[in-house]
Each structure stands twice: as structure tokens, then as C-alpha cells.
Amino acid sequence: MEDRKQRLRKGAAACLAVLFLASCGGVEHPKNLIPQEQEETRVVNMFSPMEKIDPDAENVARTASDLTVAMAEEALGTTMVYRTYTAETYQDKTYDEVCLDRARNNMDDLYLLNPDAVMILGAEGTLMDLSGLDSAKNLREIILTANTVDGKLVAIPQEVVAYGLFVNQDLFDQYGLHLPETPEEFLECCRVFQENGIETPVGANRWWLETFVLAQAYADLYNGGNTQAEIAALNSGEARYSDYMRPGFEFLQTLIDRGYIDAEKALVSEAIEAEGPDFLAGKTPIVMAYWGAANTETAYGNTDFEMRVIGFPSNRGQMPVIPMTGWAVCAGAEHAEDAMDMLNVITSDEALRVYSETNRVISPSKNVSVDCVPALRPLNERIDEGVYVLGSNAGMNVEQWGNICLIVRDLLGGATVDECMASFDALQNAALSAS
Fold it and tell me: Distance of CA 168 to CAs 153, 238, 302, Å?
């Protein structure tokens, strides 16, 4: 199963790029060409993804990150040297695979890591404990929960990436439908749309249907007041991941059986590229995407209809799903201490305010808030209330975001719900054997 998982994950780099909180320019940058003889110059080597093949292409996230880096460089007299991943350079290796290799060999100082890499490297002791940074004192509880491994805070993001349902409010109004809160209400909305000629009410792709599963699986775990005890039971094997996952997979199977999603199309579709045109044209009333897709005109930020972004249906109502990435410092890196100082600046409230206002995103700091676009207010209100589900949690001994995505794709390809649950049992058994 591990070989199969690696093969499937090789195609995930494009999708996972939207989860990263910033990206950097090309491999070389005029400011960062440091002559060898200038040994007195303090540098920090940063490895991050590059969202665009053209490093000079306009990228708001990169601009926001660069602004915070400039603040740190000025404050510390240290220069950030960008080292960036491109799929062309590494060919068959995913960003995660490259990060693991580079961090284990102390090749860089600062990394932007996906959840599974945070969990793996944190458990190996490869990452510095960031809990002593001044900026760590201002973090939301959600960050501490998601990025703590063996009692150590090993990663801090520059934004909180939230996923939600993007809905065409005009179509809901046209058919007298309220925005769904529960799985049952969601199915009823789909039924009404289909009976009124909308053949496939939900636009789906091969990456993000896991959000439905996560919302239903962990609504109680993260919002029932017993989070740590439930996670401990999962890590010990007393509780089974498959029991948590089954309702969400049964829900997806119902969507497939009733034709509310097109499983064959979803299995081969890239995020937004496939379902986006029909959603923008008003043909598809429901899609799923991440927070930033409502802020940019390249995705869903400039619709001809009234759009709302809400949480996924759960027994606790509309539920945002939040996977977590983060900046991490390699413990054995040459400039680890300088990297810690730089990270402390770029994740300070001052820098995070600049970043959040530039990108209009949710800040990891509990002291920084930014007005969001009207479409995002329903999702934002739930998060402000502390109602959400984590799509990734380094404290769980089975990685969530990537594994659930892969097993959902098995379902789309024809696997039964029971077969999918067996896959979760196998993952949990392997984690228990390794502990």
C-alpha cells in the first residue's frame, strides 16, 4: 500500500500548492547573490514551493511573504536566500519528498512544510521547538493543536487556510432553499436541484471531497470538549479511525449513487479547473474550495451571481475544515539560530498584520483580524466562534489530509465503503506497530 500511496501522491503537488501559505520567487534573486568572500554576512536559507513555473509571474501570496521577509531582514541585518522547488527540477519527486530529504540532510535552515512532513520530521526530532519564540505566545489554539509533536511546537504558518462550500446563492433562492446545515439538508438541496434540471448539483474534483468526510468524522472530536482524550484513544488503538470515517464515506457513496456528483469525472479532474467553469457560468450550484479562492479573480472572486462560502454539513451544523501548513526550522541546519530569529519576526503580530491585510486571510495570531469579503463571512463567523475541524493534526499518529484524499479516490474508483474502512484499519495498525 505504501508504494501505491507514493505513486498517487506524486501527482498531488499542484493541488497541495494551494495549501501553502506563501511561495517565493525564482531560484536566484539579485539581492540574494552573496559573494563567498563576504563571510560576515548573516544568511538564512529558505526552501519553499513555487506556485508558478514562471518565477516572475504575479503572485499575491509571494508578495505578502516577501514583505514580511523584508521586515525581518531590516530588523536583524540578515539576508534570506531563496531556494525553491519546481516540479520540472525534481521531476518525479513531490515537494514533500524533497523537503524530507533536504531537512534530514540539513540542507536548508527554514522550510515551508505540508502537514505530513511536519508530523514526520517533528517525530524524528529534525525540527526545532518553536514554543519559546515571542510570536508563539500570540498563536491561536488551533495552531498549537495542529502543529505540536511530542509536546513541541514545530511549525508556525503565516495564515490559516480554511476550506468551505462555495454556493450560488441566487440558485438557492430561485428554488426556495436554505443553505444546508446537516448532511440530510444537503442531500435534500441536491434532490431539489436535480429535479429542476440541474443534473449534477455538486462540482467535484479528485482532491477535495475529503472535506465532506473530515467535517462529519471530527465535528464532535474537535467541538465536543474532549479532543485530547479522543485523540489519545485513537493513538492507542482503543478507538478506530474507521469508525470516525464511516459516516462521511457513506455520505459520499450516497452522493455518487444518486448522481449528485460525477464520480468518474471527479476522479480525473484537477481542482477548480474542472468544476470552476460550470460554477462561474451558473450551471453548478455547489463546489468546494479554500478561503483564498474567494479573494482572487483567477478563481471565484468575481462571480456574476451572489456567492456564499459556508462550512460543510455536519451534525453540528456548517463546519469549516482547516488543514495546516507551517514554517519550520531545521534543528541541524547551519544557521538554525538565525532562522529562529527570522521566523520570530515574520510570524510577529506586526508582520502577520501586513501579511493578512495584503492577502485578506485569517491570521494565525489571535491578536490580528482582517475584514473578509462578504462572501466569506458565514465561514469566518464559524471560525471566530471556535467551530471548525482540523484537516491535519500532527498529534495524530495517522496522517489525515493526504491519506483521506487517497482513500476517497479509491471510493470514486469503485471501492466499497467497507474496503475503504479496511484501508484506514491498515494505516492505524501500521502506526500502532511502529510506535
Answer: 39, 42, 12
Which residue carries 498517487 as its cell? 8
- Residue that the C-alpha cell 518565477 belongs to: 55
Residue 15 CA to residue 350 CA, distance in Å, equals 30
154 in Cβ contact with 129 (< 8 Å): yes
Classify residue 353 as exposed, middle or buried by CB count within 10 Å of its CB (0-12, 13-18, 19+).
middle
Please name the residues in contact with 43: beta carbons below 8 A apart, sequence gap of 6 or more. 34, 78, 79, 80, 81, 335, 338
d(CA 385, CA 381) in angstroms, rounded, equals 6
> Mean pLDDT, to the nearest integer, of 123-135?
96
State residue 241's pLDDT score.
98
Q: Cell 525581518 appears where?
A: 72
Q: Are 17 and 23 in contact (CB under 8 A)?
A: yes
Return the amino acid letter for 20.
F
For 187, the grid coordinates are: 442531500
Dist. CA 214–CA 219, nearest whole Å: 8
Are the CB atoms for 86 and 26 separated by under 8 Å?
no
The C-alpha atoms of residue 394 and residue 243 are separated, in whole angstroms, by 20
**Distance from C-alpha of 160 to C-alpha of 163, rounded to nearest angstrom:** 10
Q: What is the pLDDT of residues 204-225, one digit of tens each?
A: 999 999 999 999 999 999 999 9
Of the CA atoms within 13 Å of residue 171, those in its CB half-sphere come to 24
As given in the structure block, the three cell numbers for residue 103 are 531537512
Reduced to 3 states (helix: H, G, I; strand: E, B; else coil), residue 126 is: coil
User: Cell for 204?
Assistant: 467535484
Angle between helices 401-412 and 241-257 (to 10 degrees): 40
Return the closest-CA partner of residue 291 out of 276, 278, 301, 283. 301
pLDDT tens digits, 146-200: 899 999 999 999 999 899 999 999 999 999 999 999 999 999 999 999 999 999 9
Exposure pattern of 193-205 as b/e (b: 16+ CB <10 Å)? beeeebebbbbbb
Q: Model pTM?
A: 0.81
Q: Which of 92, 14, 311 is nearest to 185 (CA)?
A: 311
Phi, psi of 429 (to 5 degrees): -65, -40
DSSP for 21-34, please give it: S-----S--GGG--
Residue 228, Cβ neighbours under 10 Å: how many?
10
Distance between CA 16 and CA 12 in Å, rounded? 6
Q: Which run of H or of E encompasses 40?
A: none
What is d(CA 329, CA 103) in angstroms, rounded to the nearest whole number?
A: 9
Q: How far apart are CA 247 and CA 245, in angstroms?
A: 6
